[in-house]
Amino acid sequence: MARILRPLLFAMTKQRWSGVEHLPRDRGFVVAANHVTMVDPVTTAHYLYDNGFAGRVLAKESLFRVPLFGAVLRSSGMVPVHRGTARAADSLRGAEAAVEAGECVVVFPEGTLTREPDMWPMAGKTGVARVALATRAPVVPVAQWGTHRLLARYGKLLKPVPRKPVTVVAGPPVDLSDLYDKPLDAATLREATDRVMDAITHLLEEIRGEQAPPERFVWRRGEDRS
């Protein structure tokens, strides 16, 4: 995958990367990133790969059933997410096992492309909190911006020319240590998730030079995408 995708990404994007010093080298960890367009998992993986990490991305299970593409996902160690089913917990157990084995697991906590009108991060789902609190592994917030110029949100056609600047920034791990010994109830999971989303949003504010709305957008499945 790297041999195919890296040359394409170098040809289509201008990499503006920073914050690599926040990625742990001595243990498994979770990367939590914002999600604007379908290109995001590829650019996030590119950022990690070129800095020495083969990130295992959580991807929706239906992609694993696509001929050939699904085989590539499985062989590269990506983790299937069974969204909205009784098997949803399997995805988290797979992510936890990978982190405990010393790997980098990539999560997009929003669970889908952001529906926020100005493309700010939405309220996150609690899966990232469950993995983080179960493993006590560092959660590194990552914000990226510019992928929407390469592929529009909900778009299907790439715009590779001219090369698009893509900024990817990692921040310091989110401090969740005071939550480790608390019950994994809804309040604890929501608090941990909100801290992660706050950290991602702050990084994105710095990239964009703008301030996000004071209240985070909440999207529920079945609502309009506008």
UniProtKB/TrEMBL annotation:
Molecular-function annotations in GO: 1-acylglycerol-3-phosphate O-acyltransferase activity
Q: Which UniProt keywords apply?
A: Acyltransferase, Transferase
Q: Name one GO cellular component term.
A: plasma membrane
Top-level lineage group: Bacteria
GO:BP terms for this protein?
Answer: phosphatidic acid biosynthetic process
Concerning InterPro entries, the annotation shows:
Plipid/glycerol_acylTrfase
- Family annotation (Pfam families): Acyltransferase
All copies of the Phospholipid/glycerol acyltransferase domain together span 29-147
Which protein, by its recorded name, is this?
Answer: 1-acyl-sn-glycerol-3-phosphate acyltransferase
Which species?
Actinotalea fermentans
